[in-house]
Each structure stands twice: as structure tokens, then as C-alpha cells.
Please model this.
Amino acid sequence: MLSSEELRKLFLFRPDITFLNFGSFGSCPKPIFEEYQQWQMKLEADPVQFITVLGIQHLKDSREALANYVHCAPEDLVFVVNPTFAVNAVAKSLNLQPGDEILTTNLEYGASDRTWEFVCEETGAKYIHQKIQLPIVSKEQIIEDFFKGFTQKTKMIFISQITSATGLILPVKEICEIAKSRDVLTFIDGAHVPGQIPLNLSDLQVDFYTGACHKWMMAPKGCSFLMATKAAQKLLKPLVVSWGYKSMYPSDSLFLDHFQIIGTRDFSAFLCIKKSIEFLHAYEWEKVRDVCHRLLIENAPRFCELLGTQPLAPLTSEFFAQLFSIPIHTQEPEKLHRLLVDEYRIEIPLARDGENVYLRYSIQGFNSEKDLDILYAALEKIIQTTSLIEVV
Model:
């Protein structure tokens, strides 16, 4: 396994940045990015044949590789540009009625929340944010907290497997099992899952699942997927109506026709999946992830102590992988973020989540103790010289 310094050379980062924000957009390693450019060159060399003939087979090959990686049937998976597209596709397909309820947590991603709120306002349905008590004590506590929001009007459960703002891993397998026993649809937002923790969709009793390949799998930007079981596919309407609708050359799947054939676009990013998986295997990424996780956990206590807060959950792999969010007391998170970026050259997000603010660091293979030391020193100086951070 390569060292963090050797792995960093595989990426395109500017040398003056301490990059602790892989969770937001990630970065495409050089070998995968070069593959991406090669696909784009092939597209431009013969665009008609590539888009209408050759690309269809290439998409099939790529979809099969991804399906094998996440353990589902290839015909149950379609590429989308991002999980937000997938959430819109599902939310706008459901025949929601006034009074119907979509049960979620108070820890969800903002773009997803906005999508459901829009659809519920249009239909008269309700989007229920069930509060999960923090800090978390146990997996059982999460499940108990969550199902307090369940009623006879609950039509769908929508929940993240790894939450964006807090970085917490939620027990979606158990939640899906309970939902299935109550005959309720389930939709899991796994944007941060592929490449960060193992994903076996055949082991989840889930109707819809979306994941991003351009985050921890390190594919080019605009490469994500929507998985829908064959029964759930029948509920979906095309988000974009194009040549795939009532196609003159239909495939065996309306799901693919409606969501894959949506007009002219550069789908080169989708075709890099095999290269991404090859990269993960070649550089022993399972071992890399283990090193990242240990680095994250070992450093968490000192950051919580510095900021006068406590971890959001027990420091184990049950709740954390490569993302760690630290509660931070600041009245001006946007100003603090700009200071960290502009003066200290540290790329790290500060996320508002209701009344709470979290400083979230991501650990990827190229990160080292040195990166966290730089962050620690910057926060220490900011505490000493400004009023931006309040240490309680």
C-alpha cells in the first residue's frame, strides 16, 4: 500500500491547499481523469455513432460493472448526474395525496429536503422531520427515535445512510426491515456510501437507493446512480421526457428507456466506472480506508476538546467511516469558513444544520496527520486571536 504522500501525487490538487473536504465533491485521480478525457475524445471523434450506437453498449458495460460492485441486478440500476436528480425522479413520481406523510430525519441533506418540501407543498402531503437525539448512544436509540414519527399515514421512509452534515452512519438495514414489515416504501440516500463503506444492495430491503460515484469512488463529476427494484420501477415517471418515452427502439426496460435516453449529453463520466473500480483494487483501497478511519478516530478527541464539544456518537466504525463532524460554537460560520480557506488555505466545510453548526473533516488516502495538525494549529490560533469561535 502506498503512503499518503505517494497517493497525493496521483491527484491533481494544488500544492498549497490542505484538502479536508473530500466529502463535498471529492477529486478524480489522474488515471481516472485521463480515462475520462479519452472517452470525451472518442465522443468528439464520431459523436453520432458514439451517442446513438457505441455509447449504448459502453453504458451497458459500465452499468454492469457498477451493479457488480454494489451488488444489484444491472437492469435495476440507471446512471444519473447526481443524487439530487434521483431524489427528484422519485419524489415527483409518487402519487402523493393530501395528508400522506414522508418520514425522514432532522439530519438530511438540504437539497433533498428542498425537493420533498416542494413536492409536498404541491400535493398537500407532509414531510416529517423526525428528530434524532444527539449525541447518539446506540443504534437502537436511532431506530427508536426515528419510528416515533411513524403513523398510519406514512407512505414512504426517506433517510440517509451516511448523513452529509454530521457524517454519521445510520442503521438503514434495520430501518428498511421494519418498514418492509409495515408495507411502507423505502428510499435511501447513499450519496456518501459507495467507496467509503461496503455497499450490498441485495442485502437491503430497499425500494429506491441513490449513490454518488463521484465522491468516494472518485469517478468524474456528474456520475451517480439510481437503483429501483422491479416493482418500484413501475411507480416511476420520466423526469425528462425525451426519445426514451415510447421509444421506436425500446429496450427490455422502460426504466432504462425513461432515465437513460434523455437527450444529447456527454455521458463520458458514466463510462469511467470500470476504471474507478480498477483504481480502487490496484491501490488496495480497502486498506487505505482502514488507515483513513483510524486517523479520523484517533484525532477526533483532541478536536472536540479544543472546541469544547463532544463527539456526536461513540467513536467506532458503527457510526463513523471517513467523515467526522465536530459541533462548533460560532455565530458566523460563513466568515469562519472563508478565513480558513483564504488565510490558512484549508478546504473544509462548516455546515449549518438547524440551530447547530458542524466543522466536518474528511480523511482520504492522501491525507496525513500533518494535514490535521495544520487544521488544529489554525483553529487554535483563531480561538486565541478572534471571537469567531466560542469555547464553552
About this structure: The longest helix spans residues 47-70. The chain has 13 helices and twelve strands. The mean pLDDT is 96. Residues 109 and 323 are 15 Å apart (CA to CA).
